[in-house]
Amino acid sequence: MKFLRNAVLAFWALGLPLTACAQAPALTTFTVGQTTVTTSALSTGLDHVWELVWGPDNFLWMTERSGRISRVNPASGQVLPLLTLPDVTPTGESGLLGMALHPDFATSPYVYVVYNYTEAGALKEKLVRLTYSASANTLTAPLVLLGNIAATTTHSGSRLLILPDRTLLMTTGDAQLQPEAQNRASLNGKILRMNLDGTVPVDNPTPGSLVFTLGHRNPQGLVRLPDGRLYSSEHGPSNDDEINRIEANRNYGWPTVEGLCNLPSETAFCTANNVREPLTTWTPTIAPAGLTYYDHPAIPGWRGNLLLATLKNTQLIQLALSPAGDAITARTEFLTGDFGRLRAICVSPEGKVYLGTSNGGTDRIIVLENRAYVATATRPATSFAFDLFPNPTRRQATVRLPTPGIRLTIRDVLGRTVATLRPLGTTATMDLSTLRPGSYLIQADGPGGSATRKLVVE
């Protein structure tokens, strides 16, 4: 039994599947550049999938708006329910919404969820931390980190994103209380930033305040790029859905500004209130939802781009970013109408894209993949290798590479990229002072192949 347990832990650490199964039947195919992307159904019979997160156990973690939190086996599609929250109020667009997993999940097995609930007859919103037990496959010990946020059956947000500095971002909608989006004393119409215990970080824009940005209507997508850039997707009224670059202490205009600062009254407000204009807008609206970043060789045409799931337009949209990340240079639509409303999106370490539909009791998780792609780990072994020392380390480590022109990627235990480096020569020193103590993977990619080493930061 001890050998089996160690084998399972080894597979988990390496990010390898424990089982294999036959490929699911293709539903549709489309091309991205020269790549054929195949879609198939992973899981069916779901109810308004709201969030999909790739977990450190190499399972998908899912929320459904009715209140259920589950783990989903990406090989078989089996849904393993963890908990149905008893106090969720799934009315209209309200219910169980965003989710995030603690970056140090092996030692801090915490799951953060945000949802609507009813108190004294009023609909509200709260952020709750749950504790996961792998042996029991349960979530217990709910701890309210933030509550009593005004809500209604629409405009609740709400995505969660944990940053490398172990602070958490939470988007909130204006709850149809439009002036509150400009009220710094209100938590509505904001992106909030807090420590993982719910307290206010000392370096927030306003001392003692959770407000990170303001002037939002209903942001339902949030993503961080490896270099630290933040982007969100946001619902407009009957016009001007938005993609925004999120910057601390910026104002995003709502309700005075809709979309760009292109009306006389909007221009004056934007100048006076440090308004950050969106990178792109849609009129008519498309109802933008889940937002992610794709950076995997499986589908080269998507590398370095944002991917957006939409509800009203029932599309997946590729958003090409400028090199500086301050403009969207192209918008390309896929899957229009194929699967109905698309809400949730995430990318696996294998480069597969998972979409959650939001149509009702017949919802599905859809997989998008390049079935012709052969991962580096399954290719014939080569002599490509690199040295890493000291290991364990505290503040820095040196890498010795076989050739110049190699890209280094540092990933955390969730598979998230926390830093990238492209040394000019064959030796480089990595500054690790911003990383929390824990285990990381250093991946080196170059013309001669790819190799990965484990790094422990003390």
Task: Write a structural description.
By secondary structure, the chain is mainly β. It has 2 domains: 2-369, TolB, C-terminal domain (Neuraminidase); 379-457, Immunoglobulin-like (Sandwich). The protein contains 2 helices and 32 strands. The strands form 8 sheets. It has a 5-stranded antiparallel sheet, with no helix packed on it. A 4-stranded antiparallel sheet has the order 3-4-5-6, with no helix packed on it. It has a 4-stranded antiparallel sheet with strand order 7-8-9-10, with no helix packed on it. The longest helix has 13 residues, at 2-14. The radius of gyration is 22 Å and the shape is globular.
Shape descriptor reads globular
In the predicted model, the low-confidence regions spanning at least 5 consecutive residues are: 1-20, 377-382
Tally of structural domains: 2
DSSP helix fraction = under 10%
Q: Number of DSSP strands?
A: 32
Question: From the alpha-carbon coordinates, what is the Rg to the nearest angstrom?
Answer: 22 Å
CATH class of the largest domain: Mainly Beta
Mean pLDDT: 91
Keywords for this structure?
disordered N terminus, single chain, four-stranded antiparallel beta sheet, five-stranded antiparallel beta sheet, mainly beta, 32 strands, Neuraminidase, Immunoglobulin-like, 458 residues
Please write out the topology.
Layout: H1 2-14, E1 28-32, E2 35-46, E3 49-54, E4 60-64, E5 68-72, E6 79-84, E7 96-101, E8 110-119, E9 122-133, E10 138-150, E11 160-162, E12 167-171, E13 190-195, E14 211-214, E15 219-224, E16 230-234, E17 241-246, H2 264-272, E18 280-282, E19 288-294, E20 305-310, E21 316-321, E22 328-334, E23 342-347, E24 353-357, E25 363-369, E26 387-389, E27 396-400, E28 407-411, E29 417-421, E30 427-431, E31 438-446, E32 449-457
Antiparallel strand pairs: 1-2, 2-25, 3-4, 4-5, 5-6, 7-8, 8-9, 9-10, 11-12, 12-13, 13-14, 15-16, 16-17, 17-18, 19-20, 20-21, 21-22, 23-24, 24-25, 26-27, 27-30, 28-29, 28-31, 31-32
